[in-house]
Structure formats: C-alpha cells, structure tokens
Design goal:
single chain, alpha/beta, 13 helices, 15 strands, 35% helix, 16% strand, binds pyridoxal-5'-phosphate
Length: 401
C-alpha cells in the first residue's frame, strides 16, 4: 500500500519541485503535531492566516454552530445569510467610514480580481499602476500586477495597460494621471521581505490619486488583522484607500476573501449591466462565521497591540552573528542574514528543530517569522532557543562558496 507521502506526490498537483512534505495530524494554538508525537512550533501561521492560532475554541464553536444551521444555500448575493451580514457589519465598524460595503469572495486572488474590476468600472479607465516586488496572487489579473518577472513571464500576455514602478520612489509617481483606473499596493510589502513605505510616500500617492480621480487600492491580505501591530496598516499610516482587499486571516482559518469600498463605488458592479462580479461560494456562511469569531478574539484580546511586545521579545532573544537585521513590526518579521546561502538549508531543516519557517518569494536573503498572534512569551523563548541552535548548525554544516 502506498503511503500518504507517495500518494501526495502521485495525485496532488505540485506547486514546486521541493515541497516541505511535512505530515501533520493535528494543530492547536501555535503547535503542529506530526506522526509519533512530533511537535513543531508554527512560525508561519499558514502564511499570515492563523492569527488566532490553530483551532481557537471560539472559532471552532462558531464553525460548529453554523454547520448545525446551514452550509451553502445559493450563489452569493441573493439570500440574506446572517454570518455574512454580521461579519460585514463588524468589518465596517472597524474600518474608516468610506469602507462600508463588503463584497465577499473566496480568496485573496479573487478579491484582487474584484478590486481591479471595480476600479475599472467606477472610473471607466483601464490603466493600472503597481509596484516592483509586489505579490497579489496567482490568477491572470493578479499575475499581471506581480512586481517580479520570475513567476509571470511564462504566462504572457497578461492584462494590458499595467505599469510597474519602484516602491518608495516619489520621482515615478507622475505616472498617476487621469487615465488611471487604480494604483494598487501592499502598504507593507510582504513577499518583498517586509518592506515599509518611506515617511510621507503613501500620502503622496493618496494625493495624486485624489487629484486624478484614480482609485487607491490597498492589498492588506497579509498585513490585516493585527499582523503588523495595528489592526490594519490603514490605522498605522492613517492613509485611507478607496478599495481595501482582505483575505488570509479574514476567514479565521477558513477560505475567504473580500474587497471593500463605499456603497457608491460598489454599486457600479450592481447596475448597467448587473452581475459585475459573480461568485458561487464567495462569503460561504461557515467561513464568515469563523472569520467573525476570529476577528472578535483579535479585537477583544487586543492581539494587535500585544504583538508589539511579542516582537520586542523576539528581537531581544534572537541575537546571532549570522543575522544582519530583523525588519518589520508586530509579528510579520523578516530575519535578514549576512549571507543568503544559508537560507535554503535553514528552512529545509527547521522541522528537525521543531520549527516551521518559510521563504519570502522575492527576498532570497531573509526568512519569515509570522507566528499566530496568540503565541505566549514562553513559546517565543522556546522558539528563539531552537532558532539559535538551527543557525549555529547552519553555520557549521553549510558550505558557502
Ligand atoms: C499580499 C497578498 N495579496 C494577495 C494574495 C493572494 O491570496 P490567495 O493566495 O488567497 O489568492 C497573497 C497571497 O499570498 C498576498 O500575500
């Protein structure tokens, strides 16, 4: 009989030639449990998804309650489903006034599709400006605005009239003009290796968008839900977009995405012609129930602000001669090494040290630390001592040419 490992490679479409291939039987809090009782500290959160940890009891209870009421009823937008309504109301109450109309979809990429379509519909324009080293997903439109040729060039041609400019470069911003439908960016670039906007730069973009009637879209798929020490990056920088894109932690561990705007802007998808965006499963009631429960935990337990003290503890404990810099705020941290050559070994061997780590797509010199926000100080202390052992062993075992 074939093992699960063999069946995984035989029957599942593979994203890369080198998957992690970990077998996990259960996950709880920050811990992943493998066969034979192997315990791994999750320092990735399924890539910024499990902000309230794995199987948070309140999230699990909300899922069970909803499963007992109903699953899928009808395509999105026809039937009043209370988990969607309650979640949209809660999100609106926490966001700036103009972000009050929530369109639920299934994933980050689909939310990006929706946001771009909405900007085109509202402005009647086609030009889209995006930034070097940005990542917005893997569908055709999302690939069109990916700020690196590596993963997109095999799929050309993509969307026309898309223009890439450097992040943090004010001299390029005159590309934002009255032909633009939108400027789309991650306020903190995640896959670029946690890159922050320079002081005042987002404000300059906001001004140019307002002056030219261009929609400003923030992709907070990774930065949302307390990940960088504020509930959203909007709160951190005080810059308000016209359209906000959310996913990942939005679903509390279930698949969910959303693009959010004002009622006036959102209404352009509803009329002349209607059905500007359609989704069968978008805003699945079980996912909305889970997401709402998770967001309530984040807000009620003040997890965004607490992640700042947890960041401090990581910075205090994670001192090692191989580390040149730790970038980021809260619990989206990029550990930059003096030499890129150690990174693949470190990530590949981390599970042997009871750690789950990951790469950044566009930064070969850093690895990611982004644990569930509920990680305790003791768990951080344990994770850092394991990390230091891992780095020591990388230094002695990896031959750098
Ligand atoms: C910033 C950002 N936007 C969009 C996406 C796409 O989300 P999904 O993988 O759910 O399609 C991702 C995924 O990593 C992301 O990091």
């Amino acid at each position: 009989m074939l093992t699960n490992r063999q069946l995984f490679q035989l029957h599942l479409g593979q994203t890369s030639p080198a998957p992690l291939m970990l077998e996990i039987e259960k996950a709880e809090g920050v811990w992943l449990f493998g066969p034979g009782g192997k315990k791994i500290i999750d320092l990735i959160s399924g890539v910024s998804v499990s902000n309230t940890g794995h199987r948070h009891p309140k999230v699990v209870a909300a899922i069970k309650d909803q499963v007992d009421s109903y699953l899928h009823l009808m395509v999105y937008g026809e039937i009043i489903q209370s988990p969607q309504v309650k979640y949209a109301e809660k999100l609106s109450s926490l966001l700036p006034e103009n972000l009050s109309s929530v369109y639920f979809v299934n994933s980050g990429s689909e939310a990006i599709e929706g946001a771009l379509k909405l900007a085109k519909r509202y402005t009647g324009r086609s030009k889209i400006v995006y930034f070097a080293n940005s990542y917005h997903g893997s569908t055709h439109a999302a690939l069109s605005i990916q700020g690196s040729p590596v993963y997109k060039s095999a799929f050309l041609p993509l969307l026309p009239d898309t223009w890439q400019i450097p992040f943090n470069d004010s001299s390029s911003l005159n590309i934002i003009d009255d032909k633009c439908a939108c400027v789309i960016l991650e306020p903190v670039q995640a896959e670029a290796g946690v890159i922050y906007p320079d002081e005042g730069w987002l404000g300059e973009i906001r001004r140019r968008c307002t002056d030219s009637g261009t929609m400003l879209i923030f992709d907070e798929v990774q930065t949302g839900f307390g990940r960088t020490g504020d509930l959203f990056a909007i709160n951190k920088f005080g810059i308000i977009p016209d359209i906000l894109v959310l996913a990942k932690a939005l679903g509390g561990g279930m698949p969910l995405g959303a693009f959010i705007s004002s009622k006036e802007i959102m209404d352009t998808l509803t009329f002349n012609p209607p059905l500007g965006h359609i989704t069968t499963f978008g805003g699945h009631p079980v996912c909305c129930a889970a997401g709402l429960a998770s967001l309530e935990v984040i807000v009620d337990e003040n997890l965004a602000a607490l992640s700042r003290s947890k960041e401090k503890l990581f910075r205090q404990l994670l001192r090692h001669e191989m580390i040149s810099e730790i970038r980021g705020e809260g619990l989206l941290l990029a550990v930059q090494l003096r030499n890129n050559g150690y990174i693949p070994w470190i990530i590949e061997h981390a599970p042997e040290y009871g750690l789950l780590l990951d790469y950044f797509l566009f930064n070969p010199g850093s690895f990611r630390i982004a644990p569930p926000l509920i990680i305790s100080n003791d768990e951080i202390t344990e994770a850092c001592s394991r990390l230091k052992m891992l780095l020591d062993d990388a230094a002695s075992k990896v031959e750098i040419k």
